[in-house]
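Budget justification aside, the reviewers requested a transparent look at the raw inputs and outputs of the sequence design task funded under Objective 1. We therefore reproduce one unedited record. The lines immediately below are the structure tokens for a 68-residue chain.
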């Protein structure tokens, strides 16, 4: 869970840039689209929560690679 959308965005970017193949996630991927597909706000938890599993997350990332 992430208290703010900015925290979720930071996690997406950090995950991508942990790979040696990605040096500038924000220019290489559509981070907004990845966020929208994989997170939603839970008013009960007052946090952004993942709504996909790990496999779906990585498919989303592949789908939103710029130039793919």
């Amino acid at each position: 869970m992430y208290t703010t959308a900015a925290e979720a965005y930071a996690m997406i970017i950090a995950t991508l840039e942990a790979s040696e193949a990605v040096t500038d996630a924000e220019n290489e991927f559509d981070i907004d689209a990845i966020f929208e597909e994989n997170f939603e706000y839970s008013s009960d938890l007052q946090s952004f929560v993942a709504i996909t599993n790990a496999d779906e997350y990585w498919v989303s990332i592949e789908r939103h690679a710029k130039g793919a």
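Residues 17 and 23 are 6 Å apart (CA to CA). The longest helix spans residues 5-17. Computational costs for records of this kind are itemized in the attached budget.
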